[in-house]
Amino acid sequence: MISTPRGSIRAKALVTRRIRPYQLKDRRVHHVGLPWHWGYKGLSKGDVVNNLSALVGDPNVTIHEAKVFVCDVKKG
3-state class of 56 per DSSP? Predict the structure, then answer.
């Protein structure tokens, strides 16, 4: 289960050592990568990652702007 203040989704996890966690002072912070938003077209099944972020559009190219945000990951 991946959640933010905006919403939550269920996703499968692949834990790998290829991307190591960051050490920020006394906190260990992990990087989470997710396929972005193709669920509605049927290319991938399940919840849509856009449900986790605010709807913020870039005025120059009219695409979704929020590519990075803080989330909570829990074993489902």
Answer: coil
Q: Tell me the pTM.
A: 0.67
User: How open is the CA angle 54-55-60, to the nearest 5 degrees?
Assistant: 130
pLDDT of residue 59: 77
Going by C-alpha positions, the residue among 71, 69, 74, 67 that lies closest to residue 13 is: 74
CA distances from 41 to 28, 37, 44, 51, 69 (A): 36, 9, 8, 15, 24
Tokens for 65, please give them. Answer: 């702007």
Quote the CA–CA distance of 53 and 50 in Å, as a whole number. 6
Percent of the chain with pLDDT over 90: 22
**Is the predicted pLDDT of residue 40 greater than 70, yes or no?**
no
42 is written with which tokens?
């049927």
